[in-house]
Amino acid sequence: MITLHEPAHLTSPAAAVRVSYLTGEQADCLLRGTETDWLGPASDDFDDFVAKRCGVSTRWGVPSTVLWYISGEHYLGTLVIRHELTPQLTDVGGNVGYHVVAPWRRQGHATRMLAAGLVECRRLGLDRVLLTCDPENVASRRVIAANGGNPDGNIAGEDRFWVILAADQNAGGPAKRRPS
Length: 180
Ligand SMILES: CC(C)(COP(=O)(O)OP(=O)(O)OC[C@H]1O[C@@H](n2cnc3c(N)ncnc32)[C@H](O)[C@@H]1OP(=O)(O)O)[C@@H](O)C(=O)NCCC(=O)NCCS
Prior knowledge:
By secondary structure, the protein is an alpha+beta fold.
């Protein structure tokens, strides 16, 4: 296992992790069998790719923030915050989406990344966050549960969870789940 010499943190996309971003995302796409076409243009002009992902932009029809989970030169994953919900996002997608690239999975990164993402959500003014998840996605369900996700049924085949954000939400780690 590669040793990370710095604790990973959520940050705006950064050109400094070009190589690990591209190799990590490529490995992830190949594992999942998803499109890799976008990696060519991204590698040709990574500065532009990064610039287009920094700050608040409209995605899914709402203001959204893309954050990368980074430790030193290593890119580990992405977390997206959708500042508002549309009817579609209320059914599928919710406020926060995330993935950890395949080489870094099963090391607790997603659990810690979501905890850090919830701090950012609070900073953005959200007082509760909707997460949706395929019922078969055991790993993501555990990540959500470890971060205080309270189940709220299933819509359109996705399980829904709300995380209530404390006024003093901090980066101390995953939250305790509220008793139901
Ligand atoms: C879901 C995902 C983000 C988890 O990332 P990760 O960094 O491996 O997660 P963690 O290491 O924090 O693991 C969280 C828990 O899930 C468990 N877990 C991780 N991968 C697992 C798997 N494939 N099968 C079963 N359990 C798994 C871990 O053991 C851990 O359990 P614990 O809390 O009881 O110790 C990652 O698998 C991923 O990116 N998947 C594709 C995209 C995705 O599904 N995103 C979420 C959409 S809702």
